[in-house]
């Protein structure tokens, strides 16, 4: 009887064990997570072709394998696909290049601000054209500045030091008089009124940058300053546009100059025109500068922190005579003449109206003003990210309307909404 009971207990234990094994096997049947592999697998089109050549595996800049899947993903019904066939422009556009360069006047301390500017210019334009970039400084550039800017520029970078005679007081300037003017402007709180370096900069940009040995290799320039922004894609070669359309000077923002900084500039200009009347061309833009046929100056000028222009014009005898005349008048130091009105007056008097161009399509910012292209279609087509409400063009302090009137040009469609 006892043996029979033991036999029954064995059977019960066996049944319990079978039940436990069933539950254990059921719980362990949950599939383990399958993580995507980062190993690069070439698609059929990337595999060895009939010639036996194996296409190069896509690389990141750091040399890492590109882990993007080779198959094109199916369209997501919850997104808006580019169905109109628009694609990003090629990494480098084909075609002939102009003899042109970007040029920047900067100091080593400007490295991170100019880095932002370069990134904008490269992303919006130069990655497609790979133009050179010349950097000029009144001191030696350090390794950090050179290293940072070199890797950002798609073209060749060149670094030049400004000759001392181009960044100092000329011997005909009365130092005591100049110092007294700076003190008076400081008391009046005139912007940069007491700055010596700002005056050297304005004089240099007015009369010397285009004569630097590094610049003599080029025919066209695009001036870029630290901390600027470009808001729209530029899908054509601006330098080639200037050459093909016989333009010699261009701008994106125009405005009235501070009267306190140039009280005798127009007198100096009239003195120049009386001595060198042969340098004043017919069909010029005097109407942009004056409301009374040249008797007085209305203070309108093109903002020169953005310029695309012809270097041969600046190196011409006409412009050199103009700058030399103004320089000896002393206004760069006895007042605070800016290079913007100096360039603008020269362009307006020594170039024909049609040789000056307004780049409505180059969206640009330099504190505190914005040029945002007028016209919604253009802004959308060129992936602009500027706010049209911040566009300065049709503001009452802007001179752009005057430029359109001077050239008998219709204003862009929709400009009324931005006034």
TrEMBL record:
Q: Positions of the region Disordered?
A: 29-94
Q: Which N-terminal stretch is annotated as signal sequence?
A: 1-29
- What are this entry's molecular-function GO terms? alpha-1,2-mannosyltransferase activity
Q: Which GO terms fall under biological process for this protein?
A: cell wall mannoprotein biosynthetic process; protein N-linked glycosylation; protein O-linked glycosylation
Q: Which organism is it from?
A: Lentithecium fluviatile CBS 122367
In this chain, composition skew of type Low complexity spans 72-83
Which cellular components does GO assign to this protein? Answer: Golgi apparatus; membrane
What InterPro entries does the annotation carry?
Glyco_trans_15, Nucleotide-diphossugar_trans
Q: Where is the composition biased (Polar residues)?
A: 34-56
Q: Which residues carry out catalysis?
A: 307 (nucleophile)
Which protein family is named in the record?
A: Belongs to the glycosyltransferase 15 family.
Keywords for this protein: Glycosyltransferase, Signal, Transferase
Q: What is this protein called?
A: Glycosyltransferase family 15 protein
Domain of life the protein comes from: Eukaryota
């Amino acid at each position: 009887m006892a043996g029979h009971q033991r036999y029954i207990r064995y059977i019960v234990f066996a049944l319990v064990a079978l039940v436990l094994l069933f539950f254990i096997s059921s719980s362990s049947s949950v599939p383990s997570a399958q993580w995507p592999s980062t190993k690069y697998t070439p698609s059929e089109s990337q595999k060895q072709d009939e010639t036996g050549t194996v296409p190069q595996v896509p690389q990141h800049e750091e040399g890492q394998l590109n882990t993007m899947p080779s198959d094109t993903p199916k369209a997501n019904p919850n997104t808006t696909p580019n169905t109109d066939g628009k694609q990003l422009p090629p990494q480098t556009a084909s075609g002939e290049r102009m003899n042109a360069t970007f040029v920047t006047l900067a100091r080593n301390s400007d490295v991170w601000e100019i880095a932002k500017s370069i990134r904008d210019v490269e992303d919006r334009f130069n990655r497609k054209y790979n133009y050179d970039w010349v950097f000029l400084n009144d001191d030696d550039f350090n390794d950090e500045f050179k290293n940072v800017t070199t890797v950002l520029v798609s073209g060749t970078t060149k670094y030049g030091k400004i000759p001392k005679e181009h960044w100092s007081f000329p011997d005909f300037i009365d130092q005591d008089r100049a110092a007294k003017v700076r003190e008076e402007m400081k008391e009046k709180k005139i912007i940069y009124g007491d700055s010596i370096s700002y005056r050297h900069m304005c004089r240099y940009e007015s009369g010397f940058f285009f004569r630097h040995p590094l610049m003599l290799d080029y025919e066209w320039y695009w001036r870029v300053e630290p901390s600027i922004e470009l808001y729209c894609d530029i899908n054509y070669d601006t330098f080639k546009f200037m050459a093909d359309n016989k333009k010699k000077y261009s701008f994106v923002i125009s405005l009235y100059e501070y009267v306190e900084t140039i009280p005798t500039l127009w007198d100096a200009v009239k003195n120049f025109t009386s001595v060198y009347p042969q340098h004043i061309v017919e069909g010029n833009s005097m109407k942009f500068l004056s409301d009374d046929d040249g008797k007085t100056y209305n203070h309108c000028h093109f903002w020169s922190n953005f310029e695309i222009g012809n270097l041969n014009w600046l190196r011409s005898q006409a412009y050199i005579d103009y700058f030399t005349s103004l320089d000896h008048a002393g206004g760069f130091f006895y007042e605070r003449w800016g290079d913007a009105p100096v360039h603008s007056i020269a362009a307006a008097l020594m170039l024909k109206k049609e040789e000056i161009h307004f780049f409505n399509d180059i969206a640009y910012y330099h504190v505190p003003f914005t040029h945002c292209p007028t016209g919604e279609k253009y802004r959308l087509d060129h992936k602009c990210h500027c706010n049209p409400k911040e566009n300065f063009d049709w503001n009452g302090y802007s001179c752009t309307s005057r430029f359109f009137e001077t050239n008998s040009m219709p204003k862009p469609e929709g400009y009324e909404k931005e006034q």
